[in-house]
Request: fold
Amino acid sequence: MNAGRAGAFSAVCLVLTGCQMFDEKRDSNPQDPYASLSQSDVYVQLGIQYMEQGMLETADADLKRAVDLDSSNSEAYNALGVLYDRLQRDDEADGYFRKAIANNPENYSARNNYGRFLCEHGRQQDGMAQFRQVIAAPLYQQPWLPLTNAGICSKAANRNAEAEGFFRQALQANPRFAPALLEMAKLTVASKQYLPARGFLQRYREVAAETPASLWLGAQTELALGDRAAAASYLERLRTGFPDSFEAGQAARWGSLH
Reply:
């Protein structure tokens, strides 16, 4: 797996059922909103939570238990696809995503995750086909997710104009979606449109914590616009907050402002 591409998708890749802890007393609580879940779905929830905690072996066991209990559980296969992608067991991840979709063609989180997986592995055309199905679904309530993933996929294929169109659609659907704001900042810096880049970065900072990428983009933007003090402030926050990041290494090679 290409680590750079995987990182680009990380903010918008995992779209699964919400996670809750379940204990042995859950069935005795009539107010428990999860009391109606099947045993299989309970194990899906647990598996997702363990995956988010980095307990991947436990997550694997719970998700496979979910499949044992219900071999048609689309969300269990979706979660297993995400898990095996993280484990870099690509063939198995691909198979699990396909099973998720085969068991429920309207599992749009699975299609979004599978599209992201395909794009990361150089299968942009297949990935875009998955995203387009999600984007076209009239009842899907988070269109900014597949739109942003489609933009990242297009950008990876060097189709920047197409990528920008997807990112702008994502921001029309959700003006505060941080990954789309950051991607637009990247595109505008790359095309030397520094005033729009400043605007996208300002909007990004209103909704998300600073990252090495946002700080590095900010430094480049402010230096290009002639604000040396602002550029130096970005660089200082990058070097002190994220000293081991790739962007801090770029900043070190960039040298002092002059």
